[in-house]
Write a structure and sequence with these properties.
single chain; 38% helix; 114 residues; alpha+beta
Length: 114
């Protein structure tokens, strides 16, 4: 399947010092709701190697409309409040995938992880 046309979102969040573990645990509690959506293709929580209070959330959706509909979901809005309480800053960047070039180790890595 080509990733071309899929919608990607990157959220950058600065977490209040000392609350990083709580943020990770909260994200792991609320993120499965997004993963259950039929047009959600995955989500990744990444902790910065430069600053342990900075996190990136990478999300992938079949299209932007599905993502925007999920953003209006009342349950998701409540989850966002829980995460918002733990952060000191937030930014987002989004776009539609134009092309995807898998790396040489992608298939082997996927098989080992899968």
């Amino acid at each position: 399947m080509s990733a071309s046309g899929t919608f990607r979102i990157v959220l950058t969040q600065q977490i209040a010092p000392g609350r990083e573990r709580e943020f990770e645990e909260t994200w792991l509690q609320v993120a499965p709701d997004a993963a259950k959506q039929p047009e959600n293709l995955g989500a990744w929580l990444v902790r910065s190697t430069d600053d342990p209070s900075t996190y990136y959330i990478f999300g992938e959706w079949a299209n932007e409309q599905a993502y925007q509909e999920f953003q209006r979901n009342p349950e998701h809005l409540e989850h966002r409040k829980r995460l918002h309480a733990l952060r000191t800053s937030f930014s987002a960047a989004a776009g539609t995938v134009v092309a995807h070039l898998p790396g040489a180790g992608a298939r082997e890595y996927a098989e080992q992880a899968g």
